[in-house]
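User: I'll paste a sequence; please echo it back and then give the predicted structure.

Assistant: Echoing your sequence first, then the prediction.
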Amino acid sequence: MAEESLLPSHTEDVSASPNKSSSLLSEISNASTRPFVLAFTVGSCGALSFGCIVGYTAPTQSSIMKDLNLSIADFSFFGSILTVGLILGALICGKLADLVGRVYTIWITNILVLIGWLAIAFAKDVRLLDLGRLLQGISVGISSYLGPIYISELAPRNLRGAASSLMQLFVGVGLSAFYALGTAVAWRSLAILGSIPSLVVLPLLFFIPESPRWLAKVGREKEVEGVLLSLRGAKSDVSDEAATILEYTKHVEQQDVDSRGFFKLFQRKYALPLTIGVVLISMPQLGGLNGYTFYTDTIFTSTGVSSDVGFILTSIVQMTGGVLGVLLVDISGRRSLLLKIKEKIF
């Protein structure tokens, strides 16, 4: 199959672009029901919180080390223990979200984030500091999987890519905001500010719907169409979408019965796609992305560049990339966009 291009082909009908834009605007308008907007707000605040957590250590390094009399090793452990929590969260995220549902899992992640920020804000020694960071890591490990999954299960088909990309944009917003605020706000106050997204989310959780795909998975098929009607509008015809969800759920259940569950991924026929997926996910991490993010202050200062300049430049790049991702993901296609990104990296 011919590879999609980031730019429209000269042979394409010029009138297709306005029609596509009109269709996209129509999809956005139809999706703007109160339950979906609230659910998207919850997902966005979770992504914003993720960015705040990741961006916290870079601008606060010198002040935390000075106030708590920490060594370089102590602060390095504080920064890196987040990744330990991420691993723990990643190990349990799928089972937890399937066991208790998407909404209850969001409750758990936000409570962990709040406890983590309070532990950091009121820490008198490195132990409470590390505990707070570990809890945040577990939360981020769960929510980095759960957030995009929850939104994609609620969003209409044509908006799933853009909705997921918008969440990544909010990660950049949170990171950039903490880079900027960290140069002017004390580290304890910054930790209190970091709890705001979770405080916003908690009351909204009483009003957001459960994922219709999870409802179908746990045998609550009668609720699927009702949830879809609340998401798409009372006058929408959701019978086809509901039937598709139920049919796909039965197909997956049948596959689970006929196969070896998780270990079916390691069959020979899945070796190539599984390897490609793991490599694509691993490359940014192995390239030092987290190390750069956690220690931006030290990296720029060691090169003779002002850390404030480094924070500003990093924020601009993060925001620009996030906006481009939102605009291009549903226009250019996933594969072609991914190829272009990897081409620029190398």
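The longest helix spans residues 72-100. The CA atoms of residues 38 and 208 lie 6 Å apart.
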